[in-house]
Queue: 2 jobs
Job 1
Amino acid sequence: MIYTAYQNENRCFGRLPIAMSRNHALRCSFSSLLLCVLPLIGSGGLQGRDLAVVHDAELRYDLGGVHLPVWSNGALVTFVSNRTISPEILSFDNGGRQLPTLRLTIPDSDMIDLDDASGGPNGVVAVCGTAYDRSGRGSGFFALLNANGGMATVVRLFPYYPSRITVASDGSIWTAGLEVTNSKDSTPPASGVIRRFDSTGKMTGSFVPRSTIASPQMVLSGMLRSARGRVGWYTGPIGGPGSQYYEFLADGMVHKYPAIALGVTEVVNGLGLTDDGMTFLTTRENSKHLRRLLSINGVGGQWEQERLPSQIGPIFILYGASGSSLVFLNNDRSRMTFIKEAKTP
């Protein structure tokens, strides 16, 4: 199926600096993440939570070289053919079955550069990035694609450039991004880098003032995920100390969580929020041959290391969460494993 997107009436364009928008060091390359993972899992300070495998799913698609997939709202989502006139969005259900491919085109755009994608309720897929016209001028945007065949909604956001996106359980669109003019970060100090929109593109909230963020890279990288009643943002940089974790509740309340104790070369490569209020992330630290699954139970808790089931192989990345289940890449890029806390009789 081919889906054509139509822009909204905001036709403003700006020039986005290559150093900020196309810094490939900030992007999660799926194949490169797999290549640098080492086969040893750290074992210090483990929690007693009893995590068990629910089921495995095999994907009949080689995900090598794609953007790091995200599991959200019942689907694994990624994209290919990026930085072309019409990128393709791929998605897979919990059995590994590939769903119809979505193709994004934007009138008057000569090239579309996607930065992130997320599944939403009722099969909607949200993507964000930058659309460039023939002269090379770029405008930040997000787009909603309807899996049932409806046309996409494209909302241009200039001078705001979103680099991360997620769809909340109530259907609202959340993004992380910066305002950029004249090739510089021009976000007003009091303006939020996290922004909430309704499905028409109207901004309904702005959170985390730019003045509280030390570096643009903390916004350009990182991860946004959602669960029932909340949205989680792990800031960049994705490696080493200095990153933060925030959660945003449906009523607009913002919680800044305790700092995550990361090694100098430790990298966070996955984030998932479950509907019971837990937050999980996965890390790797090649210099110490360390792989960890960390969790925290609410803003008053502390980050703790979890013990993974024996069926999880030495190579794992947390794609996201669904309900009370965590969804992992498990040992190879064609295998998804779903785990959850085992219930005692």
Job 2
Amino acid sequence: MSKLTDALEKAQETFTPGLRQVIENGEHVLYMDEAHDKFLDYLNDADVPESLKRVRVVRKGKRIIKFKSNKPGFKVVFVNGRAKEVKIKPAERIKRKRATKKAARKAKGKKSIALQRRKRSLKLVRK
């Protein structure tokens, strides 16, 4: 995020209204004109906005698109075929916390077996 804010600061120092300017800073390309001046001010002040993200995951050998929320304390629910962010209720939060601890205890016991199998399969791949 610092590269982007540096680019924005540099852009605002050299900004002349009415002209279209392109600023390249590593990965980021910013197109500036008079209409986008306020938007760039907003970007400069705000951190990464929180929203629903589309993520590709593999389920049963096929790639599907799954929605994830990067807002803490929220989950994704489908309402009328559309993804929507909903606040997690306190009861569900407690259940998730307990389930996570239980899963961690089970995973800890199975970890060494999984590591041995992974090591074995990697040896087969390398040969």
